[in-house]
Amino acid sequence: MEDKAKFKTYKVVCPVCGKTMWTCKSIAMENGINAGIGDCPYCKAILYMSFNEENQEMDLKGVKK
Ligand SMILES: [Zn+2]
């Protein structure tokens, strides 16, 4: 059961191009640092992620390249 929680994925929508993708918590997030960075595989926008504990979902901010 623990393993399942560890690999839980979250559905996110790129705020720049609107495409849907799946992400999981980063190692930093698991350790209490609520910040992540990545890029959109579709439009290459830089995505800043933070986890919303209340809603159990990933909040995303996108910066267009
Ligand atoms: Zn995108």
Write the layout of secondary structure elements.
Blueprint (H helix, E strand, L loop, with lengths): L1 H5 L2 E5 L6 E5 L2 H4 L5 E4 L6 E7 L4 E7 L2
Antiparallel strand pairs: 1-2, 3-4, 4-5
This protein binds zinc ion (ZN).
Zinc ion binds next to loops.
Task: Describe what you observe in this structure.
This protein has 65 residues and is mainly beta. The chain has one domain. Helices cover 14% and strands 43% of the residues. The strands form 2 sheets. It has a 3-stranded antiparallel β-sheet, with no helix packed on it. The longest helix is centred in the N-terminal third of the chain and has 5 residues, at 2-6. Zinc ion binds at residues 14, 16-17, 19, 40, 42-43, 45.
Descriptive labels:
single chain, 65 residues, mainly beta, three-stranded antiparallel β-sheet, globular, binds zinc ion
Would you kindly provide a brief summary of this structure?
This protein has 65 residues and is mostly beta strands. The protein is built from two helices and five strands; from the N terminus they run H-E-E-H-E-E-E. The protein starts with a helix and ends with a strand.
